[in-house]
């Protein structure tokens, strides 16, 4: 399993060492930098998962380091600063930090915030990796995660079953689905007399997709067999 790497950038060696000690006890791999340029080099040459940055550093302050990091990475960034006003905290978050702690600080609180930011980052990465791709064809765009559809950029209002039918067909272009296949996969029930139900939904779906005006139909009927997506 990959060990999590945390960058600690602070020109006060005692503070950097203190933070590094506590992070190491938590099992994290720690990289230290004493100025902004060292911090940027560390990010460029290592796989950093989270950065703790002092704002007032020589050779590029925390704001500049954050700006450059944000050009290439969404990693969590925590500012650790002697600036204590609400304005400074807001400015830090606006500049791109995910959290802001003031000096002097409680090391255990910092560790708790590090853990929280890493959990959030891992969750977002998991959701991103699980995201289903948008399906597009002939001006039609299907967004499975949002369960929405647009036609030439305009939203198309579909019922849940209409969406499920469209998404099923579009996920396997050129594959022919019988009414029985569609009914079983969309309704999750045995077929019986579901043929008319599927036909009615297909008809409504075609109308909403303005199929009557298309020369190249998106949903084609394969007579005696079923339906296919012609994307």
Describe the overall structure:
The protein contains 8 helices and 12 strands. The chain folds into 2 domains: 5-130, Response regulator (Rossmann fold, 3-Layer(aba) Sandwich), CATH 3.40.50; 135-229, Arc Repressor Mutant, subunit A (Orthogonal Bundle). The chain has helices spanning 13-25, 36-45, 62-70, 86-94, 107-130, 160-171, 179-187, 195-208, and strands at 5-9, 29-33, 50-54, 77-81, 99-102, 135-137, 140-143, 148-151, 154-156, 176-177, 219-222, 226-229. With 231 residues, it is an alpha/beta fold. Helix 2 packs parallel to helix 3 (62-70) and helix 7 (179-187) packs across helix 8 (195-208).
Give a nutshell description of this structure:
Residues 5-118 form the Response regulatory domain. With 231 residues, this protein is an alpha/beta fold.
Q: Rounded to an integer, what's the Rg over CA atoms?
A: 27 Å
Which spans have pLDDT < 50 for at least 5 consecutive residues?
none
CATH topology of the largest domain: Rossmann fold
Number of helices: 8
């Amino acid at each position: 399993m990959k060990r999590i790497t945390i960058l600690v950038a602070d020109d006060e060696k005692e503070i950097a060492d203190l933070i590094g000690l506590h992070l190491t006890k938590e099992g994290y791999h720690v990289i230290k930098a004493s100025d902004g340029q060292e911090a940027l080099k560390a990010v460029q040459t290592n796989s950093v998962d989270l950065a703790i940055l002092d704002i007032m550093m020589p050779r590029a302050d925390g704001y500049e380091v954050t700006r450059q990091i944000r050009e290439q990475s969404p990693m969590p960034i925590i500012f650790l600063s002697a600036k204590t006003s609400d304005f400074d905290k807001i400015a830090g978050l606006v500049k791109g930090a995910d959290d802001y702690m003031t000096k002097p600080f409680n090391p255990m609180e910092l560790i708790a915030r590090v853990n929280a930011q890493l959990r959030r980052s891992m969750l977002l990465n998991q959701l991103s990796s699980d995201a289903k791709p948008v399906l597009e064809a002939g001006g039609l765009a299907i967004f499975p995660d949002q369960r929405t559809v647009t036609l030439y950029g305009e939203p198309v209002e579909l019922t849940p079953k209409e969406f499920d039918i469209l998404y099923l067909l579009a996920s396997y272009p050129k594959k022919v689905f019988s009414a029985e296949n569609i009914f079983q996969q969309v309704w999750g029930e045995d077929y019986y007399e579901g043929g008319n139900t599927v036909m009615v939904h297909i008809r409504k779906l075609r109308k909403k997709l303005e199929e009557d005006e298309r020369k190249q139909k998106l949903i084609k009927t394969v007579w005696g067999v079923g339906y296919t997506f012609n994307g």
